[in-house]
Amino acid sequence: MSKKAGTPLPTTYNAMPTAVNYAQRGAHEDEKTKSLRRMLVQSSLALLMLVALLFVYHEIENDKTMSSAKSSTKSSSSSSKSSSKSSAASTSNPNVLFIYVDDMGYDSIGVNQYDLHGMTPFINSLIDDGLFLNNYYAQESCTPSRTSLMTGRYPVSTGSQYYVVQPAVSWGLSLTETLLPQVLKDFGGYATYGIGKWHLGHHSPDYLPTARGFDQFFGYLTGEIHYWSKLISNYGSYYHDMVYMDESCYSPYTNKSDETKYSTYLYGGKALQVIGQHDFSEKPMFMYLPFQAVHDPFDDLYDWTTGLNTSFIDEGTYNEILDRIPGSTRQQYAFSLHLLDSTIKNIVEKMTEIGQMDNTLLFLASDNGGCYNAGGRNGELRGCKGTLFEGGFKVNAFMYGPSILPTATQGVNYTNMFHVSDWFPTLLGLLNIDYTPASGHAFDGIDHSSYIKEWNSNGYYDENGMDGPRQHLVYNIYYNVDAEDFNETSAAFAVRNIRYKLVRTHVDNDYTSWYNYTTALDEDDDISRGTCIESYVNTGTLATMLFDLWEDPNETTNLYYTCNETSNALAYAAKLELEQYFDDRLPSIAADTYTGETEKAAMTTWKKNDQYILPWERAVTSSLSLCTPTTFFEPST
Predict the structure, then answer these.
(1) What's the N-to-C CA distance of the chain in angstroms?
(2) In the predicted model, what is the mean pLDDT of the chain?
(3) Backbone phi, then psi, for 368, in 5-degree steps?
(4) What is the DSSP string of 568-635?
(5) CA 470 to CA 416: how far, in whole Å?
(6) Quick one: residue 438, left, alpha or beta (phi over 0 = left, psi -120 to 50 = alpha)?
(7) Fewest beta carbons within 10 Å, which of 99, 172, 232, 356?
(8) How many CB atoms are closer than 10 A to CB 603?
(9) Does a cis peptide bond (omega within 30 degrees of 0) precede residue 297?
(10) Residue 103 has what pLDDT?
(11) Containing H/E element for 44?
C-alpha cells in the first residue's frame, strides 16, 4: 500500500541488503564461502541491473502510452466539441410566440368564463393541453405592464410606476434598460418581430421598437386607436397611428385598403406574412403579438359607428351574444374576444402547416385587469384596471408547447405566484440562454423554468405556491413621481407575501369596488361613453388594508386594525413583515419623470406627415431615420 508523502516508515521495516553489506559481512568467512558469496553478489547485482532496466523500459513505455492516450483524448474532445457545435448549429432553439391581450379581464378565457362561455373555443383548447397560470399577476395598466414584460423588472425599478405614455408627451421607457428582444437576438440568435401595440415611447426614434431589439415592427405607437380607421382617440380623432419599420428606417403605413381592415385581422394577417417569409432554417423566430383586442373604443367612423356586426360575426354567434350577454359595451367586448380567438387559431394552424408548431412555445397573457367602463369584468375580484386591488392585477395567462414542455405540464394549473416580470428570466431559462443583466439593472423577475420542467413531480406542486420560487410581490408603489406629491404616508402601494396582502390606496369609488352585476349593466349601453382613466385611483379616501388572500381572495375583510399578537397572530406577523418590506423598497425606487406636458412640436411633425403619429425629436443613440423600410409587411391581399 502506498504511503502519503511525509508519513514515517514503521520501525520494523528492513531495507534490502546491498553489495556493500555483503562484502563487509564476507571478511570473516572462508575462501569457499567467500567465493559463493561473490557469486551470489554478482548474481544479485545482475538481477538488480535487470530489474532497473525493466523498470526504465516500463516507464518509457508508460510515458508513450500516456502521451498517446492524452493525444487521443484531446483529439476525441476536439472531435466532440466539433460535433457539439455542428449539432448546435443544426438544432435551433424553439420559436416563441408571445401574445399579449389588451385589457382582458380575469376569467375571460379558460374554465370559469362566466357570461363569456363559448367565446374562445380555440384558446381554451390550447389551455386544455397547456400549463395554465392560475396565480398570475400583471400590472394595473398598459405602460407599466409592458415595461415589466420587456425588462424583467418592476415598474418602480425603471421609473414607469405611475403614468402611461401619452401621444404628444416626450417620455418613454428609459434607454438605459435592455429589452427582451435585444437579448433574444444577441444571446439566443433569434429573429425578432413585433406586431401590434408598442406604448413604450415614440417621441424620438431612439425609443422605437427597432431601436430596442426588434428586427421589424408593424403596428401603432400610442395607447389606443380605433379598430378600423386607426385614428387615435385624443385631439379630436384627427391623427392616424400606424407605422412599420426595420432597423434603419421607420415610416407611416399609408396603404388605405390595408390600413382600414379590422385591426385584429390586420395584425393576424401580418403575422401570417412573417411566418410565410421567415427562414426557419437560419434563425428561430421570436414574434411578439400585442393585439389591440380587447381594448376599447369599439365604435369608429364610417360603417362602424355601432361597432362589430354580422359582417364579422356569424349570425348564430352574434344573436347568441345579444341574447345571453347584457350591455352593448360588454357585447362588443365579447365580439372582439371571439375574433381574437379565431385569429390566434389561424396563426397556430399556419405554424402547424409549415411544420414549425412542434418546435414552438406559445405564451398568452393579459396586460392588466378589465375596465368596467369598457366592457371588462374581473369575475368576483375587487377593483379593475388602474387600481391596486386584485381586479387590476390578477389576470389570465398560460403557456403551450406539448412537444417541448414536459407531459406533466399539459392540462394542469401552475399555482406558484407568477408576475409579468418573471417572463423575461423564465423564457431565458426555458430556452437555455445564458444572460446576466448589467450592474444596477438586475431582474426583479424570477426564473420559474426549473419548476415548470419538474411541475407536478418531485414535490414541487403546492396549491398555494408555498414552495414556489416567488415568495413576495410588489404590485406597485406610487412614490418618487415628479408630477405628483407622494411621500411615505401618502403614497399608495400594495405588496404581498404568499398569503397576505398589504395595500394602501383610495377607496369609496366604483373603480375600486366589486362590479355590480345587477345595477352597473344599466349604464352599459353606450359603446363610446368613455375609457378607463387611471387617475381614478387618486379619488376617494386613502385607506390601509390587510387581506388574507387564501381565505379572502376577493378582498372583502380588512384585517389591518383587528389583528394583533393574541388575535390572529399570523396576520399580525405578516402585517409587520410587509410594512418593513415596503419601507425597505422606498430608497431604491427610480424616479418617474413624466411631466404630462404636451409638446407642440409633436403635432407640427404629424401635420407635416399627413397626420400620422411619428417621432418629433432627433435620434441620439440610434441610426433610425424617416425613410422606407424593408420588411415582410407589404400590403396584404
Answers:
(1) 84
(2) 85
(3) -170, 175
(4) SHHHHHHHHHHHHHHHHHGGGPPPB----PBPHHHHHHHHHTTTB----S--SS---EES----S-PP
(5) 7
(6) beta
(7) 356
(8) 18
(9) yes
(10) 97
(11) helix 31-90
Instruction: Determine which helix (DSSP H) or strand (DSSP E) holds 459, and give its type and residue range.
Output: none
Give the type of residue at 576: L
Tell me the mean pLDDT in the region 414-442: 97
What residues does 288 pair with on adjacent strands? 98, 194
Give the whole-angstrom CA distance, residue 637 versus residue 635.
7
CB 559 within 8 A of CB 571: yes
pLDDT computed for residue 91 by the predictor: 45
Element at 256 (helix H, strand E) = helix 256-259
Which one is catalytic: 142, 384, 532, 563?
Answer: 142
Mean pLDDT of 73-86: 33
Q: Which three cell numbers stand for residue 329?
A: 359595451
Q: Does the structure show a pLDDT above 60 at 278?
A: yes
Cβ pair 624, 250 in contact under 8 A: yes
Q: What is the pTM of this model?
A: 0.84
Q: Give, in degrees to the nearest 5, the angle at Cα 586 between 584 and 589.
A: 125
Residue 249 falls in the annotated catalytic set? no
Model confidence at 65: pLDDT above 60: no
Neighbours of 309 (CB within 10 A): 11
Q: Which of 58, 117, 199, 441 is catalytic?
A: 199
Per residue in 236-253, pLDDT (tens digit) is 789 999 999 999 999 999
Is 199 noted as a catalytic residue in this protein? yes
Structural element, H or E, at residue 61: helix 31-90
Question: What is the band of 71 on the pLDDT scale with cuts at 50, 70, 90?
Answer: very low
Which residues, at least 6 apart from 396, have a Cβ–Cβ distance to it below 8 Å?
104, 106, 107, 108, 109, 110, 132, 133, 136, 365, 366
Whether the Cβ atoms of residue 523 and residue 558 lie closer than 8 Å to each other: no
Confidence check: pLDDT of 551 > 60: yes
For 107, counting Cβ atoms within 10 Å of its Cβ (0-12 exposed, 13-18 middle, 19+ buried), the class is buried
Contacts of 553 (CB under 8 A, 6+ apart): 381, 390
The alpha-carbon radius of gyration of the chain (Å, integer) is 34
